[in-house]
Amino acid sequence: MTEASAVSAAVPTPDHVPESAFYDFDMFHDPAYVKDPHKRIIDMVENAPPVFWTPRNGGHWMIMSHAANFEAARDTDAFSSEMIPYEQMEAMLAAMPPGTPHIPRAYPINLDPPNHAKYRQPVQGVFSPKAINALRDSIRALARELVAEIADRGECEFMSAVAEPLPVRVFLKLLGLPLEKFAEYRALVKAHLSEIAPDPSSAMKRLQQVAAAMRETVLERRDDPRDDIISLLWTVEIDGRPTVLEDIENYGVLMFIAGLDTVMQGMGHGVRHLAENPELQAQLRANPELVADATEELLRRYTFTVPPRRVARDMVFQGVQMKEGERAMLFLPAADLDSKEYPEPDHFDVKRGGKPHIAFNAGPHRCLGSHLARVELNILYEELLAGLPSFSLNPQRAPKFHGGHVIGVEELHLVWEK
């Protein structure tokens, strides 16, 4: 398949979209985007409207500027996280024939307030800084082990050797899922994130597959609880009532998808930057206390998540008319490269400080797992810099990426002196 043929078909542009708010961009298959995502994003920040309509993938809005993303992320009345309204979904499920398999819903991320808080509050403590700090030693031991395994090779494909097994193994253990199903679980996550899925039934089927893959363990933990998140979920209450299997599956599909993909992509983007900048590696080796600051700047410079929203009502947003039911993407990677917020946004500055990034989103849906992600990223960079000499990109094997709701690194080949 050629690059041109991979781009999705364009749909007609709605009459209410002016030419000034139109920009042709495929967030899954744009050739320049897939070749080098953040280079393409910088070009778009400079040349695309701050909010624009694209005719690709069924047609939707892209929210680019930092100000627009910050506003949209916090205005849940206008930009809903429920791709199907809650009442409509409940009515649809109630109308299904008896015995119909449960359709999991990724809660709480696919809920708006006030229902969102009812599901988020019971699991807040699981991902608190105190709880995550207790995992530091085990995360560091695994990171050190993975780096030691590649140190004598002089080269590696970083994503498969380190970036994937580190956070995925940590999260599988945290959830209580069997490590031997690693490959099966990763395949399910990749399939779920591989398309924009305008047809909700397609996404529902994939979520059912994820729930089915977890169900045996979920039921085991109900009858034989252990020290893991799935066991804990059986003990919490949601709005005053005990959890049931459907609740555990709703929580589970969200944690499964988020925990088994996002952090590894942050690692891939960050390590690519380190590989391209040996002077930064030397600076961090000499001043390891700067690693935490470098982590934050890498998250800003290479923000990689694109949360979807449903336009909940007809409105004018940032000077653009939007219609109820349209889709809008919070293009957080562009927001964190907005020159109105960050001077010289494409320049990496380990001591930048100032306005914090929104790589973990903003508002009520700010990432619940941000503390875990930061700990994993900090430890990974520390152990990689301590365990390897100066490393660089393999000049014979260029990095490979994919677009989508998580801008991912498919392959990252590194080389260093043995």
Overview of this protein structure:
With 418 residues, the protein is an alpha+beta fold. It has one domain: Orthogonal Bundle (Cytochrome p450), CATH 1.10.630. It has 19 helices and 14 strands. The strands form five sheets. The chain has a five-stranded mixed β-sheet. The chain has a three-stranded antiparallel β-sheet with strand order 4-14-11. A two-stranded antiparallel ribbon has the order 5-6. A hairpin with a 5-residue loop joins strand 1 and strand 2. The longest helix has 24 residues, at 200-223. The model is unreliable at 1-5 (pLDDT under 50).
Properties at a glance:
418 residues, 19 helices, five-stranded mixed beta sheet, three-stranded antiparallel beta sheet, globular, alpha+beta, single chain, 14 strands, Cytochrome p450
CATH class: Mainly Alpha
SS class: alpha+beta
Strand order, main sheet: write it out: 1-2-10-7-3
The amount of beta strand, in percent, is 5-15%
Largest sheet, in brief, is: 5 strands, mixed
User: Could you tell me the radius of gyration in angstroms?
Assistant: 21 Å
What is the end-to-end distance? 39 Å
Q: How many beta-strand elements? A: 14
Portion of residues within helices: 40-55%
Which second-level CATH architecture applies? Orthogonal Bundle
Q: Any low-confidence stretches, pLDDT <50, length ≥5? A: 1-5
Mean pLDDT: 92
**CATH level-4 homologous superfamily:** Cytochrome P450
Shape: globular
Number of domains: 1
Please report the number of helical segments.
19
What is the fold named in CATH at topology level? Cytochrome p450
